[in-house]
């Protein structure tokens, strides 16, 4: 079984880490290793590229004693040539839902860990960085957000963060996998408490379908808290998805989309930005934060606004420090503050060079004298 998976991927991957596929005419084309299409062309491989705990260590992505699989999976197209391991104290849950494999384990260094299809989604220790940034970057960039939609986010952490904003009247969440919600309620109560907020309306199902039926202009903000663009989340980085979001946002409404690692996925980021620049007629910016248990230790966020009142993503118009008890609501903020907000838009020189479309946002950082 594993041999089959190994051979499948070998067929696609060349020595330079690029993936060979076909453009439909039978002609081979080269796809950057970070491109989501890489894994799409062999769904069977996806199904087998899942989590394993070997000798008390969880490794991301798949590890195996089988030599072929080892060679191939440690060159996983999403993050070739590397893996991050966590020491496992106890496996608490492992089951296959209709969509993916769901694993929860107790790690010795980061508390409990939620893993979907072999990829770490969150740990108790560092989840604050991701959930707080993906939520407050957009919501602090507009005045008085009222209607918010979360796509994915079945663990409830983003809901917990949105609830800090007292201006918010309604929070829709569309998560495809009921098992993720149930598992979070059982093993991650500090995140799942987000579901207890009376403003939350849960929809279990496909987000694209949900958005197609959403009233035009309904939302002030949409937050896409998805897993990586393989498996169930694959469509969530493609044009039709962004079009449905833009339609569901009010003029001057904002999107914050999980946008991978600037160290590993500049092609994917560039693609997402190019698509979003065409669809969202306001600002399009990239921010990032440190999350030690994600590949390369960072995660990015793509922020877009629709045509309408202009949005300055870099300098928060609605600072969280001025929002009554937002800092302490339910759980004290651990990571986000207005300084981290502004800093998140500062980009390393290599990113500015490689992702051309990113140049303009860091220009709106208020200039400070550098000694
Ligand atoms: N590479 C992992 C990216 C995971 C993003 N989603 C995390 C879900 C936490 N609410």
From TrEMBL:
Active site as annotated: 225 (proton acceptor)
Start and end residues of each stretch annotated as Disordered: 1-26
Catalytic activity: S-adenosyl 3-(methylsulfanyl)propylamine + putrescine = S-methyl-5'-thioadenosine + spermidine + H(+)
Broad EC category: transferase
GO BP: spermidine biosynthetic process
Pathway: Amine and polyamine biosynthesis; spermidine biosynthesis; spermidine from putrescine: step 1/1
One Pfam match: Spermine_synth
GO function term, MF aspect, one: spermidine synthase activity
Entries under InterPro entries matching the protein: PABS (IPR030374), PABS_CS (IPR030373), SAM-dependent_MTases_sf (IPR029063), Spermi_synthase (IPR001045), Spermi_synthase_euk (IPR030668), Spermidine_synt_N (IPR035246), Spermidine_synt_N_sf (IPR037163)
UniProt-listed PROSITE patterns: PABS_1 (PS01330), PABS_2 (PS51006)
Transferase recorded as keyword: yes
Entry keyword annotation includes Cell membrane: no
EC number(s) given by UniProt: 2.5.1.16
Ranges of Basic and acidic residues composition bias in the record: 1-10
Ranges in coiled-coil conformation: none
Residues in PABS domain copies: 55-306
UniProt keyword annotations, A-Z: Polyamine biosynthesis, Spermidine biosynthesis, Transferase
PANTHER family membership: SPERMIDINE/SPERMINE SYNTHASE, SPERMINE SYNTHASE
NCBIfam families named in the record: MFS_SpdSyn, PRK00811.1, speE
UniProt family annotation: Belongs to the spermidine/spermine synthase family.
Record protein name field: spermidine synthase
Lineage: Eukaryota, Viridiplantae, Streptophyta, Embryophyta, Tracheophyta
